[in-house]
Amino acid sequence: MDDAAVERVREVVRSIPPGETSTYGEVAARAGMPGRARMVGRILAEDGHDIPWHRVLRADGTCAKHVAQEQAARLRTEGILLVDGRLPRRP
DNA sequence: ATACTGACCACCA
DNA sequence: GTGGTGGCCAGTA
Fold this sequence. Notes:
Blueprint: H1 3-14, E1 22-23, H2 24-30, H3 37-47, E2 56-57, H4 68-77
Helix pairs in contact: 2-3
The chain binds a DNA duplex through helix 2, helix 3 and strand 2.
């Protein structure tokens, strides 16, 4: 895969402000690869770096299964409260 | 090369 | 609300 693309994805994730969230598809689009949401997921999985990966949720507002607990905890730290395992509606 | 899998998504029934 | 289908791309066997 393209390292530059990976860097762009990391940059996009880093640019998500505290207290805000985004989605895999959104990150992919902002990184210049619309429709590559899966790639974003794989990158975050591989990363484990100093990027706020916990601010990235699924399109339906739920957390990825493997990290749901950790993610919910981190989000709670930033003032984001998940209701029944999902992010409340945001118009 | 094929086949399966996965931090995904949109669409339709 | 749920569940199936097709598309997506990269890694692994």
